[in-house]
Structures are given as structure tokens and as C-alpha cells.
Amino acid sequence: MDVRFGGAAGRNLRVFKRLCGEDNLGSVVMATTFWKNVDPDTGAERESQLHSDKRFWKDMIEKGSSVFRQDRGNASGEVIIRYLINRKNRVTLRIQHELVKERKTFATTEAGIEVLSEWKEQKERYEKQIKTLKREKEALKKTDKQEIADVDEEMWEYERKIGMNEEAVGRLRRTWDYMRESIEDHCVVM
After folding, report:
1. Which residues contact 79 (CB under 8 A, 6 or more apart)?
2. What sign does the dihedral 139-144-149-153 (CA atoms) show?
3. Distance between CA 67 and CA 50 in Å, rounded?
4. CB atoms within 10 A of CB 60
5. Contact 82, 68 (CB under 8 A)
6. How far is it, in rounded angstroms, from Cα 66 to Cα 16?
7. Which of 30, 50, 86, 151 has a C-alpha 20 to 30 A away from that of 78?
8. Tell me: the pLDDT tens digits for 83-94?
9. What are phi and psi of 180, to 5 degrees?
10. Distance CA 23, CA 83 (A)
11. Cα(26)–Cα(160) distance, integer angstroms
């Protein structure tokens, strides 16, 4: 499988499924792209893996999601759009239901739990790295000032990443709270 469908793509797919909700996966369309950049056999093999592997799209397809090839520019894009329009399904996303009907905060929604869990794991990895670097720095004592400075810089970088994650979580929570209020003001959830 193409390495570009790795960690971040997998996490994004899990969050996407949580945003939609299991019951709405039948309204999801996934499109494969970059057909011009790969020979047909390799492309077909990758597409087959997306269809048959639970790490990718298999469970979504089993729940009714459709897969299209976005391989003819606007023409294939129009086919996808026509397909969605003709379905005429009214969908209330899981996140909408949780925020409005259940009045949950972002952190307690399925998508929020998934996102915050990943950030927590990432923070723990960074903190572990910082502890390792502190031990390394202690072992160096005053022997090599440049190496100590390098360790300090690496620790600072992990601390900066933790701070950036915490800021991102705060922004995300504020955005979701704003969206929930906006949805409550303008929408009726079925």
C-alpha cells in the first residue's frame, strides 16, 4: 500500500467516521485520485487493498459507502456529484446529533474523544522524550557544553510541540462550541 495512507491519514479516517456516525456511512463517497501518476496494475492493486483491508475502507464499504475513481478530471467529478444529488438522502451527522440533540461538548463527542485521545498519546510521547533527554543531559554534566546545548534545544522543541498541541486543542474546543451554538440557532436536528 502507498505509504501516504499512513498514520495521519488513518487517524483522519477514524475521526471522519466518528464525525459521520456509523449510520451515515451509506451516504459517504470516497474517491481515488492520481491515476495518471501510477501504472494501471499498481493502481488497481492499491484500490483493491483500500476495498478489502479493514485498516482502510472495507468497513465503510460494508456499511454502504461508495467508491469512485476520480480519474477523468471534471467529468468524473460530475459523476460523483450527480450520484450524491440523485440519492436525495437527508443526513444528520453524528457530530450534529451529539452537539445539538445530546448537548455534548466537543470533548465528549465520539470525534472529540478520538482527536483528544491522539493528542494525549502524542503529548505522552513528547513528555517521555523530554525525560529521556533530561537524563541524557544529567549524564553529560559539564563535560560537553555544546552537547548540553543541543539536548536543551531538543527538549525545548518537544516542549514547544506540547504547547502547540494544547493551543490547538483549545482552538478546536472553542470552534466546536461556536459551531454547536450556531447549529442550535439555525438548524433543526431530526
Report:
1. 68
2. negative
3. 10
4. 23
5. no
6. 15
7. 50
8. 988 887 788 889
9. -60, -45
10. 19
11. 41
